[in-house]
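Q: Structure for this?
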Amino acid sequence: MSAARLRVDRERCIGAGMCALTAPEVFDQDPDDGRVLLLHPDPLITRPTATRMAAGVCPSGALTLQDRPTGRDAGGDPP
Amino acid sequence: MSESLHHVATLPTARRPGCPFDPPAELLDARGHGPLSRCTHVGGKPGWLITGYDLVRSVLADPRFSSRKELLNVGDFEIAPAPPGEFLLTDEPQHGRYRKPLVGRFTVRRMRLLTERIEQITADCLDAMEEAGPPTDLVTAFAKPIPTIVICELLGVPYGDRGSFQEQIDTFMGGATSDEELIAAYTATQEYLAGLVVAKRANPTDDVLSELTDSDLTDEELKGMSLVLLAAGFDTTANMLSLGTFALLRNPEQLAALRADPTLTDAAVEELLRYLSVAKTFMRTALEDVEVGGQIIEAGTTVVLSYNTANRDPERFTDPHVLDVRRRDAVGHLAFSHGIHQCLGQQLARVEMRVAFRALIDRFPTLRLAVPAEEVGLRPETADIYGVTSLPVTWDERRS
């Protein structure tokens, strides 16, 4: 479950606010342009369920979960 | 093998009598045959009908499907491109040019700040309703005025203009009048908005339209954008409020649960959005050959995306035809669409519905239909937004 990485692509964000609505402890919106702001450095560890739900309802593909290799090398995964 | 695919003869199809909240039987039947069906468009052209949740979502998120109005391929006739500013009917990058300056004005946080004002507007409507006494038409007393006043204040329509302005948009969105009346009301609204854009440019006030004049958008584009904000923000919410009340009154155990537990309000709003799906269908046209659900949708073909059947997809929602205000899987419904066109005003709509439904059921514990349910007038499937034409209700007056 933790073998995933959250990608946040502000360029793709359309500011629908679904992330800020479903996981307000993890995401907010920029007050000026309405685009996604990440409130936690690694929310898949601190808030996995809420983060996954937010990624699942993101309409524009701005939030995506990407699998990363499990096991000892996971930490060395390139960004 | 397209030969074996289910075919829906003609769209749109009518709802079954006595089932005002369920999608048309032909569409539910199509979903039963699979998420993708062939269909014939209203103008006679062949197309595709998508009724499954996952496929509807995937098409909406796919830039190979266009929203441009002039590409619609439904019959042997030319369709004019959308007027400047009508961003629902555009693709990127034009869509982003229109949407971006608006997004910061419609954030979750910003909309929540409006709660108190929406509570006041709602209370005023309910005061007037109570004072006039039962029975009343809930559409004119409650469902229409609340979103109208809210959107007028947001856009910056001056108070003195509101009455005539509301009448005009009511006429052109209502669909119950003659073509001449409709065009006249539409033109009058456009002219009014054109004047308003000029006025805001000269004397900006604290509202969305004034803020938009401080961008590189032209007056013509601002007029088109205002019209979209009005049309999308007013009729949809008004019908959710009236049809939603009708649905709750027809499901008294759900209404009782909601009345007894205010913490269910947010979930109930999501569930009503899913269950009713008042913005029922949207269309997209393939820009190239695209494989969808194992079939090739050829370039230039228009697909119909059925939100109401997708929101009743048993593979996505447990007991999808049951209205359940305690439901946990309603999140992710497609009532506000998906992809880049997902509703800009959805957070506003949520605040309006949460406030208005709550206030209505708290204020009128004995609220009930004033006519048999079969006599409640329903909009036809040809209307863009589904809903009731009027909702006669009554209640027991409090003894003073």
